[in-house]
Amino acid sequence: MTRQDIDRVLVMERDLFADEGPWSAYAFRTELASDTYYLVAVDESGELVGYAGLAVLGRPGHLETEVRTIAVDRRMQGRGVGTALLTALLAKADELEAPVFLEVRTDNDPALRLYERYGFERIGLRKRYYQPAGVDAYTMRREARVGAGVEGATD
Fold it and tell me: How far, in Å, CA of 85 to CA of 73, rounded?
């Protein structure tokens, strides 16, 4: 992801996360300027149809990562875009030999199935995490993969 992608990303943010406080342009610019790994998915015509971000936290030898966001345009959901974005984030975490953490809405069954398929386990519950809607979130963790590629897909 580059700063030039932010306008399109903001349109998707407002559509997908209206009840969860969509991120601002400032938030994305700050993320891109920090120790994060952001990427986009584009369709055949070059239109941005998804994006994802991974924060890298800690110091070498003691790194961990956190999925900041994964978003897929509503028209493209169910076509493997989210899976492709997640596997790219996991490949980066594996390269760093770092565990991966994330939060996911407790009512987001497709995302929960995807994360569990890729080795994430529920480790906690954050009450009213998503604001202003007040929806709960599970905290999930995937152990570090040392010396291995991305594994986990069973289909």
Answer: 13
Compute CA 51 distance to the chain's CA centroid, rounded to the nearest angstrom: 8
Single out the residue of 5, 93, 3, 7 nearest to residue 42, CA to CA: 5
Structure tokens at 93: 């975490």
Nearest alpha carbon to residue 52 among 65, 71, 36: 71
- What are the DSSP E strand ranges found in 34-151? 36-42, 48-57, 64-72, 100-105, 121-130, 135-142
Mean pLDDT in runs of 10 for the chain (155 residues)? Answer: 96 90 94 93 96 94 94 94 96 95 95 95 95 91 77 45
The reply to whether the predicted model has a pTM over 0.70 is: yes
* 3-142: CATH superfamily: Gcn5-related N-acetyltransferase (GNAT) (3.40.630.30)
Whole-number Cα distances in Å, 117 to 39, 83, 153 = 21, 10, 6
Place of tokens 């300027």: 33
Tens-place pLDDT, residues 10-21: 999 999 998 888
What is the C-alpha radius of gyration for the chain, rounded to an integer number of angstroms? 15
